[in-house]
């Protein structure tokens, strides 16, 4: 049993596929297969059940995975304890689309000016997916919206509040002013994917409007286009709305403030983490 084998185990468990795990690790699929089989022989148990190409953890595999993650975490802490905490290498950063548009450009400029040797690898996603990717070690850290209800894994990450966003319901320019969802005169709410905290907040608010249903779109530009066409209302942070050309004729109703959190695994603090957090908060 070695750290490399444990990393392979975690990758296969996360991807549920030898092929996808090999691609993520930069290894040949045959090498990943051999290492998993060797680990199973060493332990004397099957860690995965095989259904064609799908790899699913057995009960023993689930138990061992938790120890593997803890061992890898201890190894990272040991390395970080003895090496200078100078930002270097890559920083795998996840972000919501809204934060990437309104908050990251200035932060990335400040960070690269101070630490030009660090490469930031940016991935977009919704809050639910970003939490999962941090816990599965596909990301070093991520910017998420504070969940309004239970999300798997949220209690297992370290969090720091870095921004506060005012969340808005955007209405067509000719829609009467509203006090709450019961005043809506359209029956469609346009929002991003289900894992988006902003969508969940808007859907909770909209429960007072009988018949209101959600239409999923892929971007904030699509949200504004739907609203401008007088087909729907949409949910969007004010910081993003202020960046959008042509948004001034639309009306907006505030849903209040939502915290943006900077999260990381509790057992990992990459050398570039503190430096990037400082670049983020310098512009807050």
Automatic annotation (TrEMBL):
Keywords: DNA-binding, Transcription, Transcription regulation
Lineage: Bacteria, Pseudomonadati, Pseudomonadota, Alphaproteobacteria, Hyphomicrobiales
Domain spans labelled HTH lysR-type: 1-58
PANTHER family in UniProt: HTH-TYPE TRANSCRIPTIONAL REGULATOR (PTHR30126), HTH-TYPE TRANSCRIPTIONAL REGULATOR GLTR (PTHR30126:SF40)
Family under the similarity heading: Belongs to the LysR transcriptional regulatory family.
Superkingdom of origin: Bacteria
Gene3D superfamilies: Periplasmic binding protein-like II, Winged helix-like DNA-binding domain superfamily/Winged helix DNA-binding domain
Protein name: Transcriptional regulator
């Amino acid at each position: 049993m070695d750290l490399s084998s444990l990393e392979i185990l975690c990758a296969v468990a996360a991807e549920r596929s030898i092929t996808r795990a090999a691609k993520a690790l930069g290894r040949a699929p045959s090498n990943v297969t051999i290492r998993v089989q060797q680990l199973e022989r060493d332990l004397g148990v099957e860690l995965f059940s095989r259904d064609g190409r799908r790899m699913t953890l057995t009960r023993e595999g689930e138990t061992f995975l938790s120890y593997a993650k803890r061992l890898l975490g201890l190894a990272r802490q040991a390395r970080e304890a003895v090496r200078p905490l100078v930002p270097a290498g890559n920083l795998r950063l996840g972000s919501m689309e809204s934060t990437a548009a309104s908050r990251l450009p200035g932060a990335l400029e400040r960070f690269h000016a101070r630490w030009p040797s660090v490469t930031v690898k940016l991935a977009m996603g919704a809050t639910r997916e970003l939490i999962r990717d941090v816990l599965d070690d596909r990301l070093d850290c991520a910017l998420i919206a504070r969940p309004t209800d239970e999300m798997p894994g949220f209690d297992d990450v370290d969090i720091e509040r870095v921004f506060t966003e005012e969340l808005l319901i955007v209405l067509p320019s000719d829609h009467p002013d509203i006090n709450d969802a019961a005043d809506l005169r359209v029956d469609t709410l346009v929002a991003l994917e289900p894992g988006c905290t902003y969508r969940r907040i808007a859907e909770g608010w909209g429960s007072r409007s009988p018949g209101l249903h959600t239409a999923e779109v892929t971007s904030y530009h699509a949200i504004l286009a739907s609203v401008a066409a007088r087909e729907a209302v949409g949910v969007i942070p004010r910081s993003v709305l202020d960046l959008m050309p042509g948004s001034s004729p639309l009306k907006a109703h505030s849903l209040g403030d939502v915290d943006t959190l900077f999260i990381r695994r509790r057992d990992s603090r990459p050398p570039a983490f503190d430096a990037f957090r400082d670049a983020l908060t310098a512009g807050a």
